[in-house]
Design brief:
The chain is mainly β. Helices cover about 0% and strands about 45% of the residues. The chain contains no helices and twelve strands. Strands 1-2-3-11-6-9 form a six-stranded antiparallel β-sheet, with no helix packed on it. A four-stranded antiparallel β-sheet has the order 4-10-7-8, with no helix packed on it. The chain has a two-stranded antiparallel ribbon with strand order 5-12.
Amino acid sequence: MDEPQNNQDNQTPPLGGWGAFSKSECLSHYKWGDDCYGWNFIDTDALSVKQELMPPDTAEQLHYHERSSQVFFILKGRATFNIDGEISVLKPEQGIEIKPGQKHFISNKENSDLEFILYSTPSTKGDRINLAPNP
């Protein structure tokens, strides 16, 4: 008699079980700023991976991180970054790195949603210093 086989290829993996994640299967979903949304995919002290959505005409506050490097990768829309007073506009399939100590903020000046993946290493937990209102 044949032994039963464990066919894991046909199973939906539990979150974190095999490393798969999505907006519907994330660690947490949160709201930030003016009607902006985020989904935590990986959240450890060493690494944070999130997807965030910014509606039209929204921006985050000018800030910096003492330890964390961040990489933003644009999925949809156009992102306007202010990094140490320099403006960069990114379109889908473009990314940018922000190093520790760089004063920055992202804004969506377009008429459609902006979506991006945000990688932070180490995590930005307790490592965000907000500054005066945006220039």
